[in-house]
Structures are given as C-alpha cells and as structure tokens.
C-alpha cells in the first residue's frame, strides 16, 4: 500500500456501519478487533503451496500439491454417493474422492479443466488417490504462492481464506514501528515488523521445525516483546505503589493483639509467629501492604488473619474479611469471631442472604465505622458498601476472586487519598517462576510448618468398580463413631455425561447405611438450609455428608476422618488437595479415597498418582503447573486477563531474564517508550496485572 493511501477503516469501524457478517462476529469473538490484534494472531502451522509435485513422484502419506487436467468426473452411487475426479499430468494420474460435495464441485472440476489440488496422498485400490483435497481451478500460468500459507487458529463460521485476507491487511496497516531504543533489544533478535512478516508469510525455504516449536528468532522476538511489556508493567505497579499512602497501623502495648494471644487455646507455631511479624511490619508503614499469605491447607492461616485484624482495629481502623462463598465465609471466620467478639469487637455480616432491614443495619455499621470487623462475600465490594475507615482488607482463598474484585476492594478507601492494606490468603502456593513474573509486585509470606499433632492423611486411588467395597468401609467407620465426607463433582448434570450426581449418591448411601444420618449439601440449596446441614455435621449428629464442591475450602470438622471423592479425575489437583485438607484435622489417622471412572489418559493417571504420592501442597501446585500451564493455574479466565500468549516461563527463562534487566532501564531512561510498549502489548490488561 503506498504511503499516501487514505487509511482504510479498521474491521471494527466498518462493522459498526452495517450489520455484522458471521465471519466478522467470529473474529470479534476471537478478540480480533484492532489491526494489532490481527497482526499478533499467529499461524498454528503452515501449508506449502509454493511447489507442485509431479503426480508420478508423490509418495504415500505425503501432503502434497499437484496440478493437472481433469480427465474424468463422475458420481458413483453404489452405497453412498461419491464424487470421483481423475486428474492427470505428464507423469501420472491421481483419483480425487469427495464424499461431501455440491453441484459447484462438478462444475469447477469438469473434464478438460486445469486444477491445482492439495492433500494427503494415499495408495488405494485404484492407485494414487486423495480424499477431500483442497482444490482450485487454474490457468497454465497461474502463479504459485511465494510464501508458505499460514493456517490460523479459527473457529466455526470463520473460513481460513477470510481470516487470511483480514490478517494480511491488518498486518499491513498495523503500527509496528520499533518502540525500543536502538541497542536495547538483544542483537540476535530481528525487528518486530520483520519478525511478524516472517511468521505470517515465511519464505519456502524457512525451517518449519523452528517455526513450529517457536525457537526461531522471529518467535523469540515476539516472546521478548511480550515479556518485556509484562515486566515493565509489573515494575511500574511496584513504583506506583511505593508512592501511595496507607494508614500506618500499630498495635498498642497491652492492646487487642496481646489480649487475643492470651485467649487462644494454643501457642503459635514458629512459622505463624514469623509471618505475623512480617505482616505487622508492613502494616506499620504508611504504604499499602500488598502481601500474599500462603500456607498449606490446615497450616493455620486464620489465626494469622485474626492477629492482623487485631492490629488494624487496635490502631482505630476497620478490617474487612472476604471469602468466596457464604458457607466459607461462615465456616472460615467462625473461629476468628469466636476469638475476637469476646474481646468486645463489633462485627458486621455482609453476604447475599442478609437482606432488608438487617442489611441496612450492617451497611450503616460499616459506613459509620461502628463495625470494626466486616465479614462477608463479594457483597462486601458492592458499590453500596462504604467504610468509614477501612484500614485492612483480608481476602481468603484469593485465587477464587477475580482481579477486578480485588481492585474494587482497594478503592474502598480512595476518598481519603489512602488505600487500605491488603492481605491475600491462599492454600495454593504460587511457584517461584510465576511469583517472579506475575507477582513481582506482591510480597509473599509462607507458613511452612503445620501445627503439631497432625497425623498425615493416607490417600488411596481406586477404580469406580471398587465402589461397593468403599461403601462397606464407610459402614464400618461410621459404626465406630467416625464421620465421612463423600464429594461429588456436579449436581443434576445431564444424564448424557454419565455422572453419578450427588442426589443419587445420597439416596444410595442412605439405603446402605440404615441407622445413620446421611446429609446432602449442594450449591443450589438456600443458604439457611446449607447452614443447617453443616451444623448437624459439625455437631456430630450427622455421620455422612454427601456434598458437591461447596465444601472445598475452609470447613473444619476435626472428627471427620474419611473422605471419598467420586470422579476424582474431573477435579484439578489443587482442588483435590483442598478437598482432602478437610480431613486429617484432628489427631485420628485419616484416609482419602479417590474414585475414578476409567479409562484414564496418561496425564489423568499421573495426576491421581501425584495425589497419592504427596501431601505437600507446594509439591502438588508445582505438578499442577506442569500439567496445566500457568493460565489455568491462576484462574486467568476468571480475571478476564489473558496471561502470556507467546512466551513460556520455563522454556523462555533466558528471554525473561533479559526482559527483567531491560525493564527498569527503560522506565528510568525512556519512560515514554516503556509506556507505549505496555499499551501495545497489554492494553487494558495492564491494569489487571497490578491487582
Ligand atoms: P488454614 O490455613 O487451612 O486456614 P486453619 O486456620 O483453619 O487453617 O487452621 C486449621 C486448624 O488448626 C484449626 O482448627 C485451627 O484452630 C488449628 N490451629 C491453628 N494454629 C494452631 C496452632 N499453632 N496450634 C494448634 N492448632 C492450631
Ligand atoms: Mg482457611
């Protein structure tokens, strides 16, 4: 396109004018809106349409392009209708078979036509053949492709030809000017524009291997760009936070913290003491804390949260505590309230089920500052909720909250030019590589020690065929006074999925265990009913609790010593670990039975094996990361922020190091270039990465 040509409207702008076509809608769904999006939509693989293979020289199994004249075109109707086309060149002939075809096929491949076909060559009964090749009518002088033909990730209703054209023009229009000052990019990497042109249209002699395994310098350049943008944005967030102010919170001598420690029924473990001090030091600074408290299931995070809350409240500020669901908020913070309320604290509850007058009362208490502790679910971050003096926000099971929600919480104090301190808690530790890249801006405290007196959980993996044996074992256990969890993956799913859903299992266990109470708990029950069921299980009246994953986190019933997880193959590793953490809370030896329905894939097997082999949540998180990749691991879908598209943290650690070195230099010396780099690569996602 000549430089003077008027800018063509972008696909998105053009689409606004007239109704969108199906391919346009499909493109939007894939996020292909701006020219840069199109330019960065890279091929999955390539097809070589740059050469013609003489028919006589084709080999079985090769995917090749041939050209010749149609010498026969007929429909065979024995059994199924098949279109048979015979193609000939100087070296031999080739039979094309089409099982799906239209009258237009016969027209373009009429006898005497010259056509070019591409497909996989087979040796059939009648000699060389191709099934459903791509084809096009050509003239003897129709040129061949000069570059390899890209095959893009597409979706239903989005033909490759349409996508190719859209991407080729997007690539031309996109602003791919070099943003980084000379000498800053590793010299082995090509300029961005060259890299992208190459990746979309590689010359025929390009080595496909290096393109497909992404080790080609053109790929490396893209990965470097992406990692750099991400590192800049992280460091920027870090620097911005350093400028923010938060209330400096200090516990008073003889105050709430000391009183709390005095009423606790146990002494803190060394690890709990250490992390509590780390948190107290942060809180005392006039700068918002942004700290993750990680510790395995059962490691005792709640008491650490209570101590942090006590510091904030002692200093005259409010503390908000959030858990992902109502039942968890209740279960999770019950102890904390039991400890703190007797010390004279005002607690407000804010969950979806607190309604009407009661809700207004809670809202007023938060807004006036009368409630020192506000506990709840997502309801806490709704717009209507205001705090008089929010000093500390604690989020339990932080990975279950979206990034946007964490951001909203931080803004709850914005009216005072201050931000609250943030403490996030998680039983799913972040592996080091992830911590370095995504959470460079996050301080981490780790509880690496369990409270004394725990007996390790024994995990057993059985095929579903052992179900009756497992039920017999349950009967023995409950007869001896034990309590049992039975976890099912889904409730009332369609029969087609062949899931034993929780209701059926409940009926089955009620029948199998006469004289014992078997309860059912699932996500669709009204909160009051859930609470009633939980209460019966906690008090020991109920022997068996059949539940969907609503019990995943936080439930604390020390007498429960057996857990059965049905369809264990359908759960994520971290989720299984969380679930398993519901048993083994008391001194009795506990067992977790993972029932699976085969056949299992190799990954499926290694996942369940991992569960049986280790009780260490950190080790499990590491394996989970290996198996699932970082996006899944961090619940990226939930946050709406796509994480790294091109780079791979393990494979590209050298590029990552280079990006980490360059990012601060750019921020210091070329802040504008740094800014544009972030905008180009992350756009609105930059904000997300800071949360
Ligand atoms: P999690 O880290 O999974 O949130 P909790 O805070 O629920 O763990 O603690 C698990 C159990 O261990 C609770 O019953 C809690 O009261 C108990 N606990 C916590 N800290 C200690 C300790 N230092 N000594 C003995 N028991 C403790
Ligand atoms: Mg907890």
From TrEMBL:
Keyword Isomerase recorded: yes
GO MF annotations, alphabetized: 3'-5' DNA helicase activity; ATP binding; ATP hydrolysis activity; DNA binding
Positions with biased composition (Pro residues): 1-10
E.C. designation(s): 5.6.2.4
Protein name listed in UniProt: ATP-dependent DNA helicase RecG
Region (Disordered): 1-23
Keyword tags: ATP-binding, DNA damage, DNA recombination, DNA repair, DNA-binding, Helicase, Hydrolase, Isomerase, Nucleotide-binding
NCBIfam families linked: PRK10917.1-1 (NF008163), PRK10917.1-3 (NF008165), PRK10917.1-4 (NF008166), PRK10917.2-2 (NF008168), recG (TIGR00643)
Compositionally skewed regions (Low complexity) per UniProt: 11-23
Family (UniProt): Belongs to the helicase family. RecG subfamily.
Segments forming domain Helicase ATP-binding: 282-447
Species, as recorded: Kinneretia aquatilis
InterPro entries noted in UniProt: ATP-dep_DNA_helicase_RecG, DEAD/DEAH_box_helicase_dom, Helicase_ATP-bd, Helicase_C-like, NA-bd_OB-fold, P-loop_NTPase, RecG/Mfd, RecG_dom3_C
BP term (GO), one: DNA repair
Function field: Plays a critical role in recombination and DNA repair. Helps process Holliday junction intermediates to mature products by catalyzing branch migration. Has replication fork regression activity, unwinds stalled or blocked replication forks to make a HJ that can be resolved. Has a DNA unwinding activity characteristic of a DNA helicase with 3'-5' polarity.
Pfam families registered for this protein in UniProt: DEAD, Helicase_C, RecG_dom3_C, RecG_wedge
Catalytic activity: ATP + H2O = ADP + phosphate + H(+); Couples ATP hydrolysis with the unwinding of duplex DNA by translocating in the 3'-5' direction
Taxonomic lineage of the native organism: Bacteria, Pseudomonadati, Pseudomonadota, Betaproteobacteria, Burkholderiales
